[in-house]
Write a structure and sequence with these properties.
alpha+beta; Transcriptional Co-activator pc4, Chain A; seven-stranded antiparallel β-sheet; 7 strands; 22% helix; 39% strand; globular; Sporulation-specific cell division protein SsgB; cell division; SsgB_sf; SsgB
Length: 143
């Protein structure tokens, strides 16, 4: 018999890009969690770009969890609670050499997404899902 492997968790949602005029722009995005990369979450932005390709960011799942209740992150990715007239939201700030962006994410979407990730890979059990040999082989092959 083969072991049952956890499945990838993916949620399609709409984030709001906060603009200087406070009007904001909706941005389609995918939240993704792959049990083979159990410490990370991935956000894929489906914004129209010069290349037409989605833009992806990856960061620690724990950063997202902490950011639900208090400011978290230093540097390129920061997350914190953000209450507004539009409801209970989470701020997601991203920085890169190309620029900065601030998004509003519905808190309920993140909570549901994170619950599903913890069903796939429970908190504290991430190391059981790592294939270190494959990861090292991939790293060495990139040289």
């Amino acid at each position: 018999m083969s072991a049952i492997r956890p499945t990838t968790v993916e949620v399609e949602t709409s984030l709001r890009l906060v603009t200087p005029d406070a009007m904001g722009l909706p941005v389609r995005a995918s939240l993704r969690f792959d049990p083979e990369d159990p410490y990370a979450v991935h956000v894929l932005f489906h914004a129209e770009s010069a290349t037409g390709e989605p833009v992806g960011w990856s960061f620690a799942r724990e950063l997202l969890v902490t950011g639900l209740d208090e400011p978290a992150g230093i540097g390129d990715v920061r997350v914190w609670p953000w209450a507004s007239a539009r409801g209970d939201l989470i701020a997601l700030a991203l920085s890169s050499p190309d620029g900065n962006a601030l998004f509003e994410v519905p808190r309920s979407v993140l909570v549901r997404f994170l619950r599903r990730t913890y069903i796939a890979v429970p908190r504290g059990r991430e190391s059981e899902h790592l294939d270190v040999d494959t990861a090292v082989t991939r790293l060495l092959a990139e040289r």
